[in-house]
């Protein structure tokens, strides 16, 4: 559908040409990457090149990159009660911010009675004072705070949170899935102990993710057992073609990042100005630093489900928030955590841009918004 406008990049991105080329070449290989013969070694080479590419992009060592089936599995692998904190003892509980992705809110392998939540501000940023209070008086904790929220785009104070967590004898996991390819992310600069990523958010294929751990991390327990793949951290034959595509996408994204971020921010700002032309329209988290490509907005009386359908009929793909609910349009738990009433949360629409978004696309979206806004808000 070449005449359509795609503004749901936070849900998934188109496949980059470089990733497609890498995958096609990988599909021609017949070897298992665990085999020692020439065919196996060639498949292994592609996996290790991709591992090195991701490591270089996020400031890690290649030996600390673990490929998984998706970001969700990477989060589940990271949230392990067996992890050992700076004191050498295992973490005894899990603290997650209230705006995390569902795969983090689920708590990984921690029992429900060992999971707590960290509040966020009205702007959608983690409340560091509440984090400090939660860390006092209990066992050492694994804390999970995303780098950037998938709905509002709000950037989180990861480095400061890491300092607080480490001073309390805990560990920090960062879901950096939305950050990769949109803003710089360095696991060492952020002082994170674990970070998760997903290929299809950065121009790679769906169905490939990765967990990156800091050097020296101890106690990570595999979710999948039964084989020695991924340095004994994740059993199962590697998805060679998917991993090759991931590596190619990451390399391309890293090279394009500075120029792309500026391009997206310029278009986002023009988009927001046009959205606000409808009386009462509100852009969430616009008072804090955000991803350069993300706009979450609403207007009095707007219903997200109706708006998403309306935009779709105008040839524009948008979202009501997270796209991980089997296609259902549901009230945003992120906005609820930020303190907004259900009626507001039910009316939030997310627009997210990418590398192929052009000024003409923004013109079409704003034209559709004027039409929909004047129709839906008067109904």
UniProtKB/TrEMBL annotation:
Stretches assigned to coiled coil = none
The cofactor(s) it depends on are: pyridoxal 5'-phosphate
| Gene3D superfamilies found in the cross-reference section | 1.10.260.50, Aspartate Aminotransferase, domain 1 (3.90.1150.10), Type I PLP-dependent aspartate aminotransferase-like (Major domain) (3.40.640.10)
Q: Please write the reaction equations for the catalytic activity of this protein.
A: (sulfur carrier)-H + L-cysteine = (sulfur carrier)-SH + L-alanine
Q: Which residues form the Aminotransferase class V domain?
A: 5-365
InterPro entries linked: Aminotrans_V_dom, Cysteine_dSase, PyrdxlP-dep_Trfase, PyrdxlP-dep_Trfase_major, PyrdxlP-dep_Trfase_small
Q: Output the Gene Ontology terms for molecular function.
A: cysteine desulfurase activity; iron-sulfur cluster binding; metal ion binding; transaminase activity
Which family does the entry's similarity section mention?
Belongs to the class-V pyridoxal-phosphate-dependent aminotransferase family. NifS/IscS subfamily.
Cited function:
Catalyzes the removal of elemental sulfur atoms from cysteine to produce alanine. Seems to participate in the biosynthesis of the nitrogenase metalloclusters by providing the inorganic sulfur required for the Fe-S core formation.
Q: What is this protein called?
A: Cysteine desulfurase
